Every structure is written in C-alpha cells, then in structure tokens.
Amino acid sequence: MSRGPFPVNSSLVFSVASGEVTTDGETGNAIVATTEVEIQASLTPLGNAASGIQKRLGIDVTGLSLQGRCVEPMAVPSGIVSGQPCQLTYGGKTSQAWIIIPPRSRWNTEASLGDLILIAFERPN
Amino acid sequence: MLTKYELRQAIETALGDLLGTYTLPDGATEIDAVSILPDSVLGYDYPPPGTVISGLEVAVLWDSELTTQPLTGQGNYTTSVVRIELKQWDESATLSAAIDALIATFGGAITIGPRILPVDSLGNIETCSITLSQSFKIRSISGV
After folding, report:
1. What is the pLDDT of residue B77?
2. Which residues sit opposite A10 in a β-bridge?
3. Cβ B24–A17 below 8 Å, yes or no?
C-alpha cells in the first residue's frame, strides 16, 4: 500500500495480539503475546466545534484533542480497535492516548487520503 | 495447601458447562472465563484489554480479613481469604445454578454474599461475591 498524501507529524504505537497464546503455569491465566504496531499519522488539533461525525458517535468532545489521517500505513491495521490505548508521539512529546475510529466515508475517500482517526487524551467509554 | 492453579481447576470442574468464555484479543482463542487475580503479567487488568467476555465470568482474588484485634501489644491477626466473584454477562441467564454448583463442591467452606440483581435502568449485570475461608477450605477440599 502506498503512503497517504498528508505530511507525517506524529506516531502512534499500539500493542496488538500476535496470535500466540500461552498459559501461565502458576495461575492458569492466558498470556497473550503482543507485538508493537506503529502508525505514522498526520494529526491536527481539534477546535471547539464538534463535527457531525463526533456528535453522532456521542463522543465527549472536550476529551478529544486531535484528528487526522493515517499516512503510513494508510489503513488502520487489523487488530486495532476503536478505544484502544496507544503511545502517541506528537510535537516531540510522548503520552498515553486513545484512538477512536469513526465510520468510513460513503465515497471511500480513505482509499486515496488514508483512514480518518481521532485521538482522545481521556479514556473513551 | 491449594495452589492457585488447583483452585482454578476445582472451580472449572465445579461449574463445568455453566462457565462462559473469554475470546482473547487475537480474536480466535476461546478459553474458560476464569481469572486468577492478580495476574503475573497484567495484575488486576487481566483479562487483556480487547477480550470479549460472554456468559458467566469468575474472578478469583486473594484478600486479608481481620480476625482478632489484640487489646494490648501490636499486630493484628488476619486470615487470608479467597474471594470468588461471579458475574453473569448473559442477561437471559442467572447465577443461581452457578451458586448451587459451588455449594455442592465447596460445602460449608464458602460464605455466599449478597447477590446483586441486574437492573436495566442502571445497566449493571448480576453479580455475587463468595468468600472461601482459607484455613477451613484448604483441608476440606484438598481431596477434590
């Protein structure tokens, strides 16, 4: 897949299950092995006005801070779900954040622009 | 003394088909919905984020209870107890069969706490906290 057209200014690192499951001998609990998956994205701060998409999703817009598009890869990799925590590097600083994946466009604009993502700094419900 | 693993096996045997499942975040692996807490890797965050829970879930955790408080001197006498938290995520089912199954296995070693019934307007699920007394239960069910 090619790169999206937007300039990269941030990086999101997720822990995603690698498919390998082992059992802890002491407790019998499952241990799910994870791998790190990185998305490079182009993010921009959100204004106060909530977009129609955010209103429809019922997102608390005061806890939302950034929105933008995936650049490399252009699509959010499988295994990453809406509401999943990630390590966000933005403006040279790294912090814990949560990704929210809004509904896809009817016109399939994601194919040429990259997937639309929202970043929350408070844990979404 | 029962190990954590033996206690898990005793609970899984007692509940059998009543137990629900964890579908782990890899999306494919389904295991019995029993958590021994704290988990050695994730602590109290077990099961791993992204796990889909269905049916009856059992969380087992270790706690201390104050038994005697000395009049003089220092130090409180505590006993270690095991709490078995039952959670019924399936709204069409109840916990009564699971409670009966635990009584059949553990007998007088358990104390059954209040059963919280599901309330639609609060959006909660049916839960029940069961205490397994460590000192009593270890000897009585080591033969299970």
Report:
1. 78
2. A41, A90
3. yes
Does residue A84 contact residue A16 with C-beta atoms inside 8 Å?
no
Q: Cα dihedral angle (B5, B35, A34, B43), rounded to 10 degrees?
A: -90
Q: Please indicate if any CB of chain A lies within 8 Å of the CB of B53.
A: no
Minimal CA separation from A47 to chain B, in Å: 30
pLDDT tier, A2 (very low <50, low <70, confident <90, very high otherwise) = confident
Interface A-B, measured as beta-carbon pairs within 8 A, has a size of 59
| Shortest distance, CA B3 to any CA of chain A (angstroms) | 8
Indicate if the pLDDT at residue B144 is higher than 50.
no
pLDDT digits (tens, 9 = 90+) for B96-126: 999 999 998 888 788 899 999 998 888 899 9
Return the H-helix or E-strand segment holding A120: strand A116-120
Residues in Cβ contact with B58 at an 8 Å cutoff, skipping those fewer than 6 apart: B11, B15, B19, B33, B34, B35, B84, B85, B86, B87
